[in-house]
Specification:
five-stranded antiparallel beta sheet; binds adenosine monophosphate; Immunoglobulin-like; about 20% strand; disordered N terminus; alpha+beta; 4 domains; 13 helices
Length: about 450
């Protein structure tokens, strides 16, 4: 390890204290909530905040054990959840900002205790992501915002003209909007659904080029699809690995039978399937920039707010279409949105079996299934009440992921802590740089 790495990892905090300069750029620090092992803090920005704040450092120690040292953590947001604390213990916290010129002075020291139940008192002040307050009206609120911001007034006015009944229907899933094609559940007749909603492709038309990802039941590859008389088009090819059981084959093709029913610029398009030879394949349009979460993480800070809102607008359009068709996604997250070369975002991943079985974000819920807790609405976690309204909750989390460039929602909090905190009224804080228009105080809803 070089002296600089040593300096950076072991003595950054102490060393920077010596060179910290200027007034504290941290306003009032307050406790949002506390559980036995965690304390959530947030703070305000000072007036005339310089715009070169890189992140904030939070230093803390148990008050009774100051001599045994302290811990610190960093965040880019105006809030933090400090985890791994001891129950019923008073901790001392102070926060400082880091700019390109180094650390600024610390805020005042504040004592907060774990394990008390002072959450409710602060609820009214806790900021919430617009859509994380579940309710059928939320999607319209979001769309209103996006349409206003992106100048899409025409479709906004059109949407506004829809009657209250239609609006209500959109969120109940069982009554899709009249006049719009209705989603058919392939489980009613899986074989018929594949015939009806997908096109069989001759495998000789497919050229597989390279592996780009690991799917649930096989590899995902990029390649080309040849259509006689037309130019080859780039495609992604999902393959079903050999030795599959009949149930796996059915589950694999189920996604194609669902995707094949959709036709929208913000839903990943199905080109066709290969079912008459092996390997069984699903061929979809190729999305050059891959999944939205990793794309944003690789391009942290690279986009304007208008570009980020444009991405979210795409996801909202796709989700509006799905709810109009009476389809509930159940697993909307930035990792399940794909981005093309023009930054158009499209909703993907229509493999609902995974929601219950082999999900990358699994957690047992009270009824024995597995669901992606951080993205899932409370009523869906507790009662499995999935609906377009619960998709709206997930959309709120996606908004937060996008505005924070792929940050993990609720950071390193455990799933159990997330469930309890949400129940107690905690909501994801405003991401750094997120305009107020995208973020509401609870009292506004
Ligand atoms: P999935 O099984 O759909 O979750 O896909 C696994 C991974 O493959 C994704 O996270 C993407 O990185 C990649 N992938 C899936 N579909 C596409 C596509 N249509 N275009 C480009 N990359 C894709």
């Amino acid at each position: 390890m070089s002296i600089w790495e040593y300096f950076y990892t072991m003595h950054l905090t102490q060393a920077c204290e010596c060179v910290s300069a200027g007034p504290s750029l941290v306003g009032v620090v307050r406790k949002d909530w506390a559980s036995d092992n965690s304390i959530a803090l947030s703070w305000t920005e000072v007036e005339q905040q310089p715009n070169d704040i890189l992140d904030y450092e939070i230093k803390y120690y148990a008050k009774e054990q100051e001599q045994s040292g302290y811990s610190s953590t960093r965040t880019k947001a105006l809030s933090v959840v400090v985890t791994g604390l001891k129950p019923s213990t008073v901790y001392v916290f102070h926060v400082r900002a880091r700019t390109a010129a180094g650390f600024t002075a610390y805020s005042n020291k504040l004592d907060f205790s774990t394990g008390d139940s002072g959450v409710a008192a602060d609820q009214g002040q806790v900021l919430v992501v617009v859509t994380a307050a579940v309710g059928g009206f939320s999607l319209l609120v979001i769309l209103t915002l996006f349409f206003l911001i992106t100048g899409r007034c025409q479709s906004f006015i059109k949407a506004k003209r829809k009657s209250d009944d239609k609006r209500r229907d959109r969120f109940q899933n069982v009554l899709p909007v009249p006049g719009i094609k209705t989603y058919v559940d392939p489980d009613e007749d899986p074989t018929q659904a594949v015939h009806q909603f997908t096109t069989e492709i001759d495998p000789s038309r497919i050229r597989i080029e390279r592996v780009i990802g690991a799917g649930e039941l096989g590899e995902v590859c990029s390649g080309r699809l040849r259509t006689p008389g037309e130019k080859d088009i780039p495609v992604a090819i999902k393959t079903l690995k050999g030795g599959y059981a009949e149930r796996q084959r059915r589950d694999f093709l189920r996604e194609a039978s669902i995707m094949g029913q959709f036709d929208h610029p913000n839903i990943v398009r199905l080109e066709g399937v290969v079912t008459k030879s092996t390997p069984v394949m699903i061929v979809v349009e190729y999305m050059e920039n891959g999944s939205l979460d990793s794309f944003l993480r690789h391009h942290d800070g690279h986009f304007t707010v208008v570009q980020l809102v444009g991405m979210l607008h795409g996801v909202a359009s796709g989700m509006t279409y799905l709810s109009d068709m009476g389809y509930v996604h159940r697993d909307l997250s930035a990792r399940n949105v794909l981005v093309d070369e023009g930054l158009v975002c499209k909703v993907s991943d229509f493999s609902p079996s995974r929601v219950l079985e082999d999900h990358p974000e699994p957690a047992f819920n009270t009824m024995g299934g597995k669901i992606p807790i951080r993205w899932t609405a409370p009523e869906a976690i507790t009662y499995r009440k999935f609906s377009s309204a619960s998709d709206v909750w997930s959309y709120g989390i996606v908004m937060w992921e996008v505005m924070s460039y792929g940050e993990r929602p609720y950071w390193e909090m455990s799933n159990q802590d997330v469930i309890l905190s949400i129940e107690e009224g905690y909501r994801l804080p405003v991401p750094m740089g997120c305009p107020v228009a995208l973020y509401y105080r609870r009292s506004c809803l």
